[in-house]
């Protein structure tokens, strides 16, 4: 399993696909007139503008779900860099989200004066430290051994909340109230919309950073590790260090995602950060399309919305209670299997192929 | 330049957002008054009620029955013509016992389904995540299905009305009963390692502090009690108080049977659903001396505290009524006390909706809650007014007898959650046909 | 001292179930280089089949036989119809597909049998400090590990299966029906998974009952070393004992953290598991 994503992932292209897109295609070069960080910021701005627009025409429920898409996307994008970039399959990404979420609730509980931006920076620092620890401990592991170790991390870490339940609230977790829209914007945005906006601002900045990293030297090094560790080492890539760095970046993104989740939902409990979450994140990543940040977007949309649509579907079918209750889970499973069966590159792969087919041949 | 402009704009927008987010993240201004003079979710012929329940996932096995029971009663009420001509539209959303999902489905219920009130939202960590939201939005939060003390706080959450006898009150009455009837005997506590355990011990210790020989806890994700039960045996605990959910009560009984240890079990209402326990334990009777009667060998003599009618009670009119209603409107064969939990809740919700009158608004519902003189189906006085939203105020004690019957060994008693005394009560219930809860 | 003995016996009994599941994971890993997340789902199908058969016939052992058969058939079917078309494309995709399968099967079981808990019998009496049912668990797992070792080491079938897994092209050229061997591997693995289910299921079963068992099963397989059936047994017992001691002496809230600690310690000393063969690093 040294190369779990397979070479096929290399085919993924598209505006956000710097992670895997071959940088030397003519199209790629024509876009390089702008320096990479600025170009990513441009995308970030467009994304933020789109979300703001969406928020203005929809209600509070959509705001909550858009925020969920945002923080899930950031977490998945971090995992993207780790799995799609460096080829390390982690089943414990939920653990980093949990670290971020608890850091946020603890900060708000004990240091309510700190602004949200400071909280987020602290969360990045804390989860990066956690990433160093985990990355260093697992750098020698490969394939299923890494998967097993990260899996037990996701299951074991919530145990801490029971051990220190005075401080971490035990199984009931910690509840916080976070500030909503600032006074002068009170009429423009509701609290939920404001929070969604804060989430997305953080998310687009985070994504721009991730995109810049993965199109830079570090990203190339990671991909060389994924493709062939031995060859990479011979070419002078510091194998261990690069692996740890990938873990640190992924865990910072995961932690930030978790922190934003706690900020929006106002709660952090062990029952939100179960094994199911970690597995869902990885499944959604592959489902959305590995090797591209667009894949993270489709993954996040799927995680947030598929269950809701499936529940509505189950209701409308008028089946027995047992069937109705379990249908959403079965539905997600079947969609997952079918998509991977017929579109190995996930939704993003399918969309790229569709786009290529629709585009008039002259522009190619 | 054409390309640069959006980039600059973007940076400016991002900076604005970050800069305005510079006030303390935890500094929350007090919200204004909520408007309760609304009839959200009420039409001429229907009332939309919502609930969040674990229908799938690890918590589903124990609690699925709550909403099944409630639904059966609402169907019954609707079949009788509803409430002031309105049919109850009971919408249950699955949160899989994950607070993050609870928040999502609660918003969905409030904003999309436009529920009139939240009824019986289940679980302490789950409901704890939405209680602020419901109160901020002015959605009446009727009868959360949990015994946490947090629901009874009219200062912070005026729209939340507790339901279950809270863990401390129940434990005080258990403690007193044990100290009176098993005086001088060694007592062991077995409890779930969260607020259930904490609040229960606070009550038990008021009466049993000198008798306790072992305090053992379990985590709901580790389904193994061998070490705990072995410790009870080692310390020679003669009475074991179990503040646990049914699966762990059953597990403790099995574990004790396997090492030949036979304490007097005292089980809290949350785990004392003997119908469920029978179902779980029936398979294991083949190794004991009571061959013919399922699970009797385990349950015989067990003491259970309770505040609702019990399905085992063939004398109780409400229990018989619930069996009939479930037989007609419910799904599945066996009716457990967990079904009765949901059914009792539903009857009381219907009752207060009826009292709120023809012109139903959230304010009239709250007024009705505050003014309601509760007369069952629960066997205990019920508090929903005057700054005390504590719900049921005490418990009665039953003992399980071989053959599946129960006997009340101590009548209903009430107490507070502090150090106050325990008193008998002469609470009178109305039978099903006299209670006004449907047209 | 009795406390210590009790904890030891208890740890061995639970460890046996982890070991059984770990064994089934090891076989599939050896056959297809996959970590099979659908393993608990296949065990679930087997156990619920046993529940139904025992309910109808009244015989535990008919149910037991039905469970092993169901596991065998389900494993073969999954390999043939779900995994094979995908495994060719990408291993990660195949792993995620087993995850999807887990969701589907858990949901289907919930649809058919409901999400409630059911009481589920042990194979033998559970009464006693070291009950017959625990002895059965240990003995059966030990026997299965021995049989597997013998199968791979001494029989032509085992040889072909290994060849098909490690050198599929060469195996094909020398006349081994590679596809059939893979299906056989999955069938055997799922049959052992069904046994794991029968050991770990009691006393109560519900659609999520094997989630935790699976986590410790995979942990056991990893610390034992994925190349060796005895590694799975050692890993399972190590996890079982470790968690039992810590629960007993320090408190059950530390049980999962203990498993994490064991994994960290073992893998930092031996990154390929306790019983892995020392291989020359390729670098």
From TrEMBL, chain A:
Matching InterPro entries: ABC_transp_permease, LivM-like
A Pfam family matched in the record: BPD_transp_2
Annotated localization: Cell membrane
Membrane topology note: Multi-pass membrane protein
Keyword Transferase part of the UniProt annotation: no
This protein's UniProt keywords: Cell membrane, Membrane, Transmembrane, Transmembrane helix
Annotated spans, Disordered: 1-32
Parts of the chain that traverse the membrane: 38-57, 63-83, 90-110, 116-138, 145-164, 197-216, 244-264, 276-306, 327-344
Protein name per its UniProtKB record: Branched-chain amino acid ABC transporter permease
Organism: Nocardiopsis tropica
From TrEMBL, chain B:
Chain ranges of the Leucine-binding protein domain: 47-404
Keyword NADP carried by entry: no
Pfam families tied to this protein: Peripla_BP_6
Keyword tags: Signal
PANTHER family associated with the record: BLR6548 PROTEIN
Family: Belongs to the leucine-binding protein family.
Protein name: ABC transporter substrate-binding protein
From TrEMBL, chain C:
Organism superkingdom: Bacteria
UniProt-annotated location(s): Cell membrane
Membrane topology recorded in Swiss-Prot or TrEMBL: Multi-pass membrane protein
Name of one Pfam family that matches: BPD_transp_2
Bilayer-spanning residue ranges: 12-29, 34-54, 60-82, 94-114, 134-154, 175-198, 254-275
UniProt keywords, alphabetically: Amino-acid transport, Cell membrane, Membrane, Transmembrane, Transmembrane helix, Transport
PANTHER family tied to this protein: ABC TRANSPORTER PERMEASE PROTEIN (PTHR11795:SF451), BRANCHED-CHAIN AMINO ACID TRANSPORT SYSTEM PERMEASE PROTEIN LIVH (PTHR11795)
Entry's family note: Belongs to the binding-protein-dependent transport system permease family. LivHM subfamily.
Protein name: Branched-chain amino acid ABC transporter permease
Organism whose genome encodes this protein: Streptomonospora nanhaiensis
């Amino acid at each position: 399993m040294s190369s779990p994503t397979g070479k096929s992932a290399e085919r993924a292209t598209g505006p956000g696909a710097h992670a895997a897109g071959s940088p030397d295609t003519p199209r790629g070069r024509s876009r390089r007139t702008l320096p990479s960080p600025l170009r990513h910021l441009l995308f970030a701005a467009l994304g933020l503008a789109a979300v703001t627009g969406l928020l203005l025409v929809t209600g509070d429920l959509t705001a909550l779900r858009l925020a969920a898409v945002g923080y899930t996307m950031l977490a998945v994008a971090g995992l993207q860099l780790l799995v799609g970039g460096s080829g390390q399959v982690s089943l414990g990404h939920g653990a980093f989200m949990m670290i971020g979420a608890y850091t946020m609730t603890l900060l708000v509980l004990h240091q309510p004066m700190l602004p949200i931006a400071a909280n987020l920076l602290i969360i990045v620092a804390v989860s990066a430290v956690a990433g160093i620890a985990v990355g260093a401990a697992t750098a020698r592991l490969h394939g299923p051994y890494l998967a097993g170790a990260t899996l037990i991390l996701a299951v074991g870490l919530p145990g801490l909340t029971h051990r220190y339940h005075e401080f971490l609230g035990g199984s009931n977790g910690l509840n916080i109230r976070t500030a909503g829209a600032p006074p002068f914007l009170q009429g423009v945005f509701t609290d939920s919309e404001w929070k969604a906006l804060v989430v997305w601002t953080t998310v687009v900045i985070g994504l721009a950073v991730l995109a810049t990293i993965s199109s830079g030297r570090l990203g190339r090094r990671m991909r060389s590790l994924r493709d062939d560790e031995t060859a990479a080492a011979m070419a002078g890539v510091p194998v261990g260090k690069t692996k740890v760095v990938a873990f640190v970046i992924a865990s910072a993104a995961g932690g930030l995602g978790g922190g934003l989740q706690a900020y929006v939902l106002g709660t952090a409990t062990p029952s939100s950060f179960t094994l199911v979450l970690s597995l869902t994140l990885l499944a959604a990543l592959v489902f959305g399309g590995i090797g591209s940040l667009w894949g993270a977007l489709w993954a996040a949309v799927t995680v947030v919305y598929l269950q809701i649509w499936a529940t509505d579907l189950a209701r409308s079918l008028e089946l027995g209670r047992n069937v109705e209750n379990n249908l959403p889970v079965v539905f997600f499973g079947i969609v997952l299997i079918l998509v991977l069966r017929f579109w190995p590159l996930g939704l993003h792969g399918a969309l790229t192929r569709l786009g290529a087919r629709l585009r008039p041949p002259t522009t190619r | 330049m054409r390309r640069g402009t959006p980039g600059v704009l973007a940076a400016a927008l991002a900076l604005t957002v970050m800069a305005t987010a510079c006030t303390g993240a935890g500094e929350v201004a007090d919200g204004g008054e909520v408007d309760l003079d609304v009839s959200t979710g009420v039409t001429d012929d229907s009332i939309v009620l919502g609930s969040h329940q674990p229908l799938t996932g690890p918590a589903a096995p124990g609690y699925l029955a709550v909403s099944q029971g409630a639904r059966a009663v609402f169907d019954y009420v609707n079949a009788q013509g509803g409430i002031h001509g309105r049919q109850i539209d009971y919408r249950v959303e699955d949160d899989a016992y994950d607070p993050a999902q609870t928040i999502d489905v609660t918003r969905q219920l409030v904003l999309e389904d436009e529920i009139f009130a939240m009824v019986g939202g289940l679980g302490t960590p789950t409901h704890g995540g939405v209680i602020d939201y419901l109160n901020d939005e002015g959605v009446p939060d009727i009868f959360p299905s949990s015994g946490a003390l947090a629901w009874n706080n009219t200062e912070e959450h005026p729209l939340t009305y507790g339901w279950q006898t809270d863990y401390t009150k129940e434990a005080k009455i258990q403690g007193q009963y044990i100290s009176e009837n098993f005086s001088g005997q060694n007592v062991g506590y077995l409890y779930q390692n969260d607020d259930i355990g904490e609040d229960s011990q606070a009550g038990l210790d008021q009466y049993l502090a000198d008798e306790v020989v072992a305090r053992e806890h379990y985590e709901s994700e580790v389904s193994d009690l061998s070490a705990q039960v072995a410790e009870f045996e080692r310390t020679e605990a003669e009475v074991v108080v179990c503040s646990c959910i049914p699966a762990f009560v059953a597990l403790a009984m099995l574990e004790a049977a396997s090492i030949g240890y036979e304490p007097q079990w005292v089980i809290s209402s949350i785990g004392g659903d003997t119908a469920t326990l029978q179902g779980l334990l029936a398979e294991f009777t083949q190794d004991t001396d009571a061959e013919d009667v399922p699970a009797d060998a385990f349950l015989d003599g067990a003491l259970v505290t309770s505040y609702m009618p019990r399905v085992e009670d063939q004398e109780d009119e409400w229990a018989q009524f619930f069996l009939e209603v479930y037989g007609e409107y419910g799904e599945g064969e066996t009716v457990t006390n967990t079904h009765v939990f949901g059914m009792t809740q539903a009857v009381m919700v219907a009752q207060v909706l009826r009292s709120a009158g023809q012109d139903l608004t959230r304010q009239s519902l709250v007024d009705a809650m505050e003014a309601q003189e509760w007369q069952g189906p629960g066997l205990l006085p019920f508090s929903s007014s005057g700054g005390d939203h504590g719900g049921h105020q005490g418990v009665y004690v039953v003992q399980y007898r071989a053959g599946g019957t129960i006997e009340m060994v101590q009548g209903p008693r009430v107490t507070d959650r502090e150090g106050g005394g325990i008193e008998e009560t002469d609470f009178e219930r109305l039978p099903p046909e006299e209670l006004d809860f449907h047209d | 001292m009795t406390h210590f003995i009790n904890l030891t016996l208890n740890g061995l009994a639970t460890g046996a179930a982890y070991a059984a599941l770990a064994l089934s994971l090891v076989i599939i890993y050896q056959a297809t280089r996959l970590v099979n997340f659908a393993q608990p789902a296949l065990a679930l199908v087997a156990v619920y089949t046993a529940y139904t058969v025992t309910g109808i016939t009244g015989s535990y052992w008919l149910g037991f036989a039905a469970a092993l058969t169901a596991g065998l058939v389900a494993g073969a079917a999954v390999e043939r119809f779900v995994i094979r078309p995908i495994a060719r494309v990408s291993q990660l995709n195949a792993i995620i597909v087993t995850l999807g399968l887990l969701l589907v099967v858990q949901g289907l079981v919930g649809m058919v049998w409901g999400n409630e808990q059911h009481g589920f019998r042990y194979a033998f009496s559970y009464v006693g400090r070291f009950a017959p049912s625990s002895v059965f668990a240990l003995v059966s797992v030990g026997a299965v590990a021995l049989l597997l070792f013998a199968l791979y080491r001494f029989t032509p079938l085992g040889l072909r299966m290994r060849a098909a897994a490690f050198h599929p092209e060469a195996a094909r050229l020398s006349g081994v029906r590679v596809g059939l061997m893979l299906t056989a591997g999955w069938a055997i693995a799922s049959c052992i998974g069904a046994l794991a289910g029968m050991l770990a299921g009691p006393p109560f079963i519900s659609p999520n009952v094997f989630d935790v068992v699976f986590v410790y099963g995979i942990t056991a397989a990893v610390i034992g070393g994925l190349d060796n059936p005895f590694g799975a047994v050692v890993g399972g017992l190590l996890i079982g004992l470790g968690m039992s001691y810590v629960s007993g002496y320090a408190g059950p809230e530390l049980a999962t953290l203990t498993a994490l600690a064991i994994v960290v310690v073992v893998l930092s000393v031996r990154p390929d598991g306790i019983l892995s063969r020392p291989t020359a690093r390729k670098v």
